[in-house]
Amino acid sequence: MRNPHAGEPFATPDREIAAALLDVSVPTLLLSCVHMSGDPGIIRGRLRPAGLFLNEVQGYLSEEDKAEARALALEVIRDYRDRGCPEPEPVGPELLHEMMAWLVCEEVPAEYVPLLLEEMELDGRDARRVAPAGTAEQREAVPVVVIGCGESGLLAGIRLREAGIPFTIVEKNAGPGGTWWENTYPGARVDVGNHFYCYSFEPSDHWTEYFARQPELQQYFQSVMDKHGIGPHVRWETEVLGATWDEGGAVWSVRTRAADGTEATLEARAVISAVGQLNRPYVPDLPGAASFAGPLFHSARWDHDVDLAGKRVAMIGAGASGFQIAPTIASEVGSLTIFQRTAQWMFPNPNYHAAVGPGVQWALRHLPFYGRWYRFLLFWPGCDKGLEAARVDPHYPDQQRAVSETNELTRQMFTTWITDQIGDRPDLIDKVVPDYPATGKRTLQDNGAWLSCLTRENVELVRTPIGHIEPGAVVTSDGGRYPADVLVYATGFQASKMLFPMAVVGRDGLDLREMWGERPAAYLGITVPGFPNLFCMYGPGTNLAHGGSLIFHSECQMRYITGCLETLIAGGHRTMEPRRERYDDWHERSQRELRGLVWSQPSIEHSFFKNSMGEIHGLSPWRLVDYWAWTREPDPDDFVFG
Ligand code: NAP
Cβ(194) to ligand 1 under 6 A? Predict the structure, then answer.
């Protein structure tokens, strides 16, 4: 069978190929040429990328060099086509390593190579798939309930199906996608490059934009679900109320409630929580809010029946969601008042709203491994460099402004991005340049849409705190009155209440959320002592603020969880749970690391990363390469088996 990443054979005429090459990432193209021609000389000559920066996919090549590279590539592609597009010969590990370093213009340390090869899957082999263990009968005896069918729950279903382990997914929505099902607000789109923000084993060459909008993302998860036959395993529109461990039977009783109110109990030997961290909307308790006369709704519960045309809209909160909503609705509404408590840092990304042109789509579909190398090109800049950049240098003088010299340079770059756009508006600059270190909160992707929205005549950014709400207005603490017909809460989610509002009760009646309080923890973000056979995906300590993508993390977690289940099954064990000392040690080390990272800086007053004590328990302070290595397979010594 042809390697799925070798591209579909084609008979495209020269002229069309030449036109397609005008769109593509030229350095990526040259690597595909190495595969097509088998000639590494292509990357050993003068033509080579000059530098690397996130979302810069042309390696800063000059126009002349790009033209020369395209002409060379056209020759290679024409020859390859005329030979009938044979599947390229595999490339040896040394050359692959050389190709990696060439593309990203720096040495790629050896410890990363296995991770990257796995992520790229150049051999067409899905290495994260875990082979079934035990007999079919043994596997049948270990039914699993997965809570949630978002990105991670769907992945769990796919892996369990491959492993031959029976499972049921319980999903409160009527379809898959989780976040991408619920967040239908105007302008919702992913801010991680889509050719990397997709499962490693189910890449998509069909994305119409580099950062796809919600409907396309939801459709992606739907189509992956259909392809893998997961739909029949899902109970839709059914919410999990709680789960209780039964010691005698060594089973979890999972209580559910369907949309019609019918309650039921599912018995499972293991439970996988895949409920996400940003799922339950947070609405601040603002005085007078109940008196508001017009429609009001949260960004994740957008009311599409409300026609905003010509209306006076007040939007409270402007984090990642508000940042996307405002520029999208500004031209339609009568007026838009944005109440923003904390200014946000933005990462310059001119491609943020760009369409994937037909040339790139052609290359992704036909040029061998083009899509795989493109994935690597997007992945690498976010692979652990952000973590180093987030580290606090305790000797750096002005910690309110920056936590290190690197962080100061980032501040300057981000500030220039702002002042270059609105240099003529010092009043606005004062409002939008954050007063805390760059990257201290989740950094947003920006192509200029935000500031251009703020300079519109019908848009006002208000930084004064809200005092109260009246039937027809939002009133700030200084008495400013802002009339409004519609109120939108873009105020985020209850991020520190992990697994909320489910009641999960483990051994000896231990309630998980009571035990956690505001300090949720799990060993590797996955398992918790006292809660046998319970596994978290996107659990405590696994949110990513320094790079990577949650899909990458989910794939790590699910490989580990499948490995745990295989250990249970093959070993004939009834239960497994992490040793208390491993859990404590993990949490303590994670906390120590987090305290030394920019997100913990006390100068950051408001952040959903922090709990009410200013501590961070949701984020990962670990390098992706370490987390990947630690989760490749479970170490039986970490567990107590029953
Ligand atoms: P968020 O980033 O937490 O932003 C919430 C906003 O509401 C902030 O401006 C916050 O101000 C404000 N707020 C909260 N409580 C308030 C209060 N009591 N009074 C006044 N203002 C208040 O939430 P989000 O925008 O929904 O995004 C949450 C996360 O979802 C993101 O960080 C990201 O992980 C994910 N997300 C991703 C995308 C994407 O990929 N494109 C898009 C949307 C969301 P403070 O900043 O002062 O707290």
Answer: no
Q: Which of 341, 441, 538 to mutate for ligand 1's pocket (most ligand atoms within 8 Å of CB)?
A: 341
Tell me, what's the pLDDT at 54?
82
Element (H, E) at 561: helix 550-571
What is the model's pLDDT at position 53? 85
Which residues, listed in sequence order, are joined to residue 445 by a DSSP beta bridge? 347
Domains located in the chain, CATH noted: 4-127+357-382 (no CATH), 143-279+495-641 (3.50.50.60), 289-345+425-489 (3.50.50.60)
**Residue 477 vs residues 111, 467, 622: alpha-carbon distances, Å:** 54, 4, 41
Q: With a cut of 70, list the residues of the chain below it in pLDDT.
A: none
**What pTM was computed for the model?**
0.97
Q: Which of 339, 608, 620 to mutate to test the pocket of ligand 1 (most atoms within 8 A of CB)?
A: 608
State the pLDDT at residue 203. 83
User: What's the token pair of residue 513?
Assistant: 């959320």
Kindly report the protein residue whose alpha carbon is nearest to atom 33 of ligand 1: 320
How many whole angstroms separate alpha carbon 349 and alpha carbon 346? 9
Q: How far is CA 4 from CA 97, 120, 125, in A?
A: 21, 12, 9
* Atom 5 of ligand 1, nearest CA residue: 491
Residue 411: per-residue pLDDT: 98
List helix spans (H) across 142-288: 151-162, 179-182, 214-227
Q: Is 278 in the pocket of ligand 1 (CB under 6 A)?
A: yes
Q: What confidence score (pLDDT) does residue 205 get?
A: 87
Q: In ligand 1, which atom is closest to the CA atom of 607?
A: 48
Residue pLDDT, tens place only, 121-140: 999 999 999 888 889 999 99
User: By alpha-carbon position, which residue is closest to atom 31 of ligand 1?
Assistant: 320
Q: How far is the CA of 466 from the centre of ligand 1 (A)?
A: 16
- For residue 14, the surrounding DSSP H or E stretch is helix 14-21
Structure confidence at residue 481 (pLDDT): 98
Q: Which of 297, 278, 300 is nearest to 289 (CA)?
A: 297
- Atom nearest to 286 CA in ligand 1: 18
3-state SS of 568-608? HHHHCCCCEEECHHHHHHHHHHHHHHHHCEHHHCCCCCCCC
Q: How many angstroms separate the alpha carbon of residue 441 from the centre of ligand 1?
A: 10
pLDDT given at position 130? 87
* Ligand 1 atom with minimal separation from the 606 CA: 48
Please report the atom of ligand 1 found closest to the CA of residue 284: 18
Contact 451, 422 (CB under 8 A): yes
